[in-house]
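Subject: mismatched residue count in predicted assembly?

I count 907 residues in my input, but I want to confirm that the predicted structure covers every chain. Input:
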Amino acid sequence: MNVPVILDRRRVLAGGGALIVSFAMSDALAQDQAAPATAPKPPGSLATSSYLDSWIRIDADGTITLFTGKAELGQGLKTAFQQIAAEELDVPFASLKVVTADTRRTANEGYTSGSNSMKDSGTAIQNVAAQVRELLVGEAARRLSLPVESFRTENGAVIAPDGQRFGYGDLVASDMLHVQAQAKSTLKDPASYKVMGQPVPRVDIPAKVTGGAAYVQDMRLPGMVHARVVRPPSYGAQLTECDTAAVEKLPGVIKVIRNGNFLAVVAQKEFQSIKAMGALSAAAKWQETPGLPKQDDLPRVLASLPSQDTTIFERNDPSAVGQRTLEATYTRPYQAHGSIGPSCAVAQLVNDAMTVWTHTQGVYPDRQGIAEMLRVPVASVRLIHVEGSGCYGHNGADDAAADAALIARELSGVPVRVQWTREQEHGWEPFGPAMVTKLKASLDGNGAISAWNFEVWTNTHSMRPGGAGSMLAAQHMAQPFAVPAPKPIPLPEGGGDRNAIPIYKFPNAHVVHHFIPAMPVRVSAMRALGAYHNVFSIESFMDELAGLAGADAIEFRLRHLDDPRGRDVIEKAAQAFGWQKGQKAAQDRGFGFAFARYKNLAAYCAIATEVEVNRETGRPRLVRAVAAVDSGQVVNPDGLINQIEGAILQSMSWTLYESVTFDDTRITSIDWQTYPILRFNSVPEKVEVHIINRPGLPFLGSGETGQGPAAASIANAIANATGKRLRDLPLTRKKIKDAIDA
Amino acid sequence: MMNLKVNGHDHQIDAEPDTPLLYVLREDLKLNAAKFGCGLGQCGSCTVIVDGKAVLSCVTPLLLLEGKQVTTLEGLGTISTPAPIQRAFMEEQAAQCGYCIAGMMMRAQALLQKNPKPTDAQIRAELEPHLCRCGTHMRILRAVHRAAHLMDTAELSPAIPGSAR
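Triage response: the counts match. Full output below for your records.
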């Protein structure tokens, strides 16, 4: 037995025949013994972490632990993964323990983002569970010298033909599961599913509704102290003066940390740290430089910045000739993730080993960034995911983790909890990037689209860590790390050009991505990335074109859509909504419709809405929404419905109310007064979600599929209610009122 | 030292009198349910019940609580013996990230204590100070209606959801 000092290269073999192999060792072995390049790759994240025991561990006492490199963000994946494993292993759901993203214990599955978790981790878990079950059956068969076909599994045991039961814990021995996954698994027939496809209650909800410890904010390590950071008042501000003497004498204050432009205070108790933060903030003098663009002129500013232009889609058919042409420009402001709980992290340095508990979406990339910032070996840093408030993309989580690590380094042995303020989260989170889209299309003599032109101008949609320079603390410290050069996320997923390529079939089509490297405002990934605005644009424009063609909005879409699964969700949503061709909504009300397949490769979603507009005030109200979704094989239908309901309400909030504000120097939307979002007085009367299940088909990500269609559907309903088309997000009551009065 | 009554128990609190109740609950009493969301009284995540009324604990200093009864979500019930409001939120699966939920539940509880049969409009109006970012609003509304029903009928069916759904 060998226990090296390096934290994540430890392999421990426990007694009793139980098998405990840490992920990282398996991974290292996998790299050493790489399969020939020609061998087919196993599916999902098994392609990069191929050992079965990186995913499932069975102890001699029968305890089964499931490991995933993905993080629970409130989307319910822990429950869904547990269902998948229970199903394919043939064990009771409640008998499984699930371990999520931890650089010492789980596979490196990158970020929990892009609606990829079910496809990556869910698929891996399904295949691993099936293969583990097969190995256990094989072992029982070997012991009795009988053919494997004569055995079956049930409730965590292999049953022999004579009824003899072998518990999984009794069958597992030494390195039985320390084998590489096969490319193909024998999966269960979906018709036989008992746990998958059921609305199993979420495993995390009981603690959340009874005051259990559920979040990183709830961590209380022995001897833990409280830190607050004093951030600069604006991007690029330089700390010119800071007399910390008075702050250091305040009650409970343990330390003031000044490292370049990074300023923080640590105190015994939390409220002491808050008071000290106030005093430190007052003592700090900053030199600020105006550098923000004119908010009112944003579309022009964006389109005038240098861009890297790529034609990402081109189709030509000279025989299709247009007769009537329409053009439109759509815009989206910077928008905030706006997590209800500001970011938080706990860090502790023990014997040169740094551990950070964080609600990051990517423990491995974030570990790399923090190690680089601390200028220590990656192996000396461990990141453990602990749930935070919902993030909806790259919010302050990674920055708070870096803050905690930088502060904890100064207080060896002491656990340090860093809690951001509301103003810090609103002011410093990387926002969803502003976007401009210009569309132009022609209709032929039959009212079909003959030519389609789509251009999108935007920044990168991911500045996530990997390198230290993505994190505020590393940017602000005395020996700072430069912000890395932004890169576009390649297609087919895409970033700013996500869903820029139409799913509809047009004889002529031309799509250009204008990637703008300069980032005057801090930006990164926000739920659905460019798909939110691109789908808003495409689906608004489809309505405008349907109007020009004199066609029904749904019939017009179906006229241009071959994809049968897409047609199915459109027809399902239309039917459930009661959509009628030529229908008229009640006075001051309108109906809207929109559809997309997220990334053109994940879940399908169609949404019909009814909106009421108060003509006196311009106030829009979403009355009801009816959605249909196809995300392949459904694992937890209630979880899927919850995601789509949430997508509709969140997207409605973005679409009707939200815009980051700033003057020439500072972000000015710094709390819920200055950045208003959806409140209960605007919650719809009804939201319905219909699932089209596809038994046995691959899992398709669904957490972000609703955002774009919800936005466009609401915009289309407003246009239907008022006769006025609004193209500049958000569709505020003032803009609606102005349009009505124009 | 100040005496603070929380969930029916007396506690001697050693904190500055201007300390907001939220930090006393979370740090001194190690209670998780009341959440820090803004510290500005803008989001409702920190809501607890004081003498029957929903109160924003992030902007309520300790000195105002002498002799008052503070109730947090922990004081209503537990996972094994949940209160009707807790059962209702579990049965409706009324959470995504869940960070805002404890505050919502406390205001709903205060509402139901004084008005056992609120209308949908009354529930919406009451929850107006609360923000949810995941978009779980429809489920939250359903859960409050269900809680009212559970309190009214005092059902004794199993507390943990699953079979019910």
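Chain B touches chain A through 59 residues (CB under 8 Å). Marking this ticket as 'not a bug'.
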